[in-house]
Amino acid sequence: MKTMYVYILKCSDNSYYTGVTNDLDKRIVEHNYGINKDCYTYTRRPLNLVFYEIFQNPTQAILWEKKIKGWSRAKKEALISSEFEKLTDLSKCKNESSSLLYIKGASTTLSETEQQQQQQQHVTLSEVEGKL
Question: Is-above-0.85 flag for pTM?
Fold first, then answer.
């Protein structure tokens, strides 16, 4: 089976580009040379390789690339710096609509009255199942 690489480049504008290839050295040269004007990295050169991982299974490599592309900047930086213990925390939803925050009543922007009103309007799964 052919060796595949999932890689992350840091662009000159400090953004990150994640890709997959079967020839890492050649692909980095292509990115830095600017072969394709429509490529994300074309106007963000020079580029620096900051992370790569080797795969023997092309399907696994492609799935890993797609997963990383969906990550936040902070999560990519934790991966790049090998701070794997941060990945779980960085995966947690922290916005106001998070069910964990709602259940804990940890909303910081709603007044106490607004939180109580929302809790009164909240219908639990068991209440819904009981009406079925």
Answer: no
